[in-house]
Write a structure and sequence with these properties.
It is built from six helices and 13 strands. The chain is α+β, with helices and mostly antiparallel strands and 263 residues long. It has one domain: Fumarylacetoacetase-like, C-terminal domain (Fumarylacetoacetate hydrolase, domain 2, Alpha-Beta Complex). Strands 1, 2, 4, 5, 6, 7, 10 and 11 form an eight-stranded mixed sheet that branches. A five-stranded mixed sheet has the order 3-13-12-8-9, with no helix packed on it. It is globular and about 50 Å long. It starts with a helix and ends with a strand. Bound molecules: 2-oxoadipic acid and magnesium ion. The site of 2-oxoadipic acid (OOG) has 14 residues, from helix 3 and strand 5. The site of 2-oxoadipic acid has 14 residues, from helix 3 and strand 5.
């Protein structure tokens, strides 16, 4: 831990403003190269406190990111990160969202899970996660880094709440034993052209793995993933830039499909 409480507050405000004003900023590690991992999550927590002070309730909305090899290669990093989703970022399935609501939006094909019971680490593993999943959903995350040219390192992106901006969910599907989240096919199309075909196992071998990692990370702060939590498990393939006029369709075997349009 190297940042003072006032630096943490100042950086959270800088990132919050950049998002509100849709203006990209330099990555914060340029100015604070010695900041620690704990500092990065302290800034993210301060950012969440600012957003919740405006009336949003984020306590059931979690996301993992950089959980597939394709995403890690695309962003030049080697470890997953965790953040939260903003309630007002949700776009209904089939709806239109203005491209101007973002700085430089990209879409990601993800599997989302909803828990029926809490998950508490340390020692949380895939078996615990599978026993706790109530529903699974097709999910499209609309990420939007607050950093210029989507250029960041892990600490900067954690502080920036892992580029969280928008999200779209398909219809919830009851999770049944035997439902295979690793070998299900995932197909994303933009304007009818296939941009990715991948399987659930692209996400750390199984999308339940990042959920267990999140429970274990929260345990270090004596927190848990509560019952009822929604978790986006991370892009299974590289993120794709989108612009006004684009239509995105995402289908996952056994879970259904969703679509969203950018105006
Ligand atoms: C960081 C967030 C990544 C995912 O699903 O991998 C993420 C980024 O790539 O901007 O949400
Ligand atoms: Mg994502």
């Amino acid at each position: 831990m190297t940042l003072s409480t006032s630096d943490v507050a100042m950086l959270a405000e800088r990132l919050d403003r950049a998002a509100l004003e849709r203006r990209a900023i330099a990555k914060i590690t340029n100015e604070f190269p010695d900041m620690g991992w704990d500092d990065a999550y302290r800034i993210q927590d301060a950012l969440r406190a600012r957003i919740e002070a405006r009336g949003a309730d984020c306590h059931l909305l979690f996301k993992a990111g950089l959980t597939s090899r394709a995403k890690m290669v695309q962003m030049g990093v080697s470890e997953p990160v965790f953040g939260f989703l903003k309630p007002d970022g949700q776009v209904s399935n089939g709806d239109t969202t203005p491209a101007t609501a973002y700085i430089h939006p990209r879409v990601e094909a993800e599997i989302a899970v909803r828990l029926k019971r809490p998950l508490k680490g340390p020692g949380c593993h895939v078996g615990d996660v599978l026993a706790a999943i109530d529903e699974v959903m097709v999910a499209l995350e609309i990420i939007d880094s607050r950093y210029e040219n989507f250029n960041f390192d892990l600490k900067s992106v954690i502080a920036d709440n892992t580029s969280a901006a928008g999200w779209v969910l398909g219809e919830p599907v009851r999770f049944r034993p035997g439902m295979d989240l690793a070998h299900c096919g995932i197909v994303m199309r933009i304007n009818d052209a296939i941009v990715s075909t991948v399987a659930g196992s692209a996400v750390l071998g199984h999308p339940a793995v990042p959920v267990a990692m999140l429970a274990n990370l929260l345990a270090a702060q004596d927190r848990e993933i509560p019952a009822g939590a929604l978790i986006l498990t991370g892009g299974a393939s590289a993120a794709c830039a989108v612009k006004a006029g684009d239509r995105v369709d995402l289908a996952i075997q056994g879970m259904g499909a969703l679509s969203v349009h950018f105006s």
